[in-house]
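re: that chain from earlier
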Amino acid sequence: MLAYLVRHTDLVIATAKAAAKEQALIQAEKPQFMPPPWNSKKHHDENHRSFTANSCHPGERGVSFGINNLIVDTLSIPEMKKLGCPVTIEATRSVQLPGADPRTAGASTGGQQCGVSIATKAAVAASVESVFLEFDTNPSKGLCDGPSSLSLSEAEALLSRLKAIHAGVNV
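^ sequence. v structure.
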């Protein structure tokens, strides 16, 4: 469920009910314009209460900072886990730079590929249960999230490193 849609409680509840009926999972992005759960507990509780019983995975993707930067706050991960759902790090989305793609003179979203592995490793160390990563055979020409996607050739090394971090923090 897209970040902008998560703020609509009625839509969240309807989505959760439909997913439960189909025995489906829901990936719900924490909107980058919303504070971590402890700053907006009532809103999150209303939306996530319907998710909790329906296999929702809330996704951490950072908080807006300035005009076109997102900051991943790993302290929000244990707070989101208190909602009773597994938490995902949306690493490639968390390094997006809205309106900062030099390929389009700022007409579309840019990104900081170098931050993907940093954000993912930090989130795994903070005990997320899953990761959302976007890979492309040629990220510089990617039509969707190219500036924040990783090269497919980097997948095996990054996933191996994440597995080792996960094993290390879950001893």
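The chain has one domain: 3-169.
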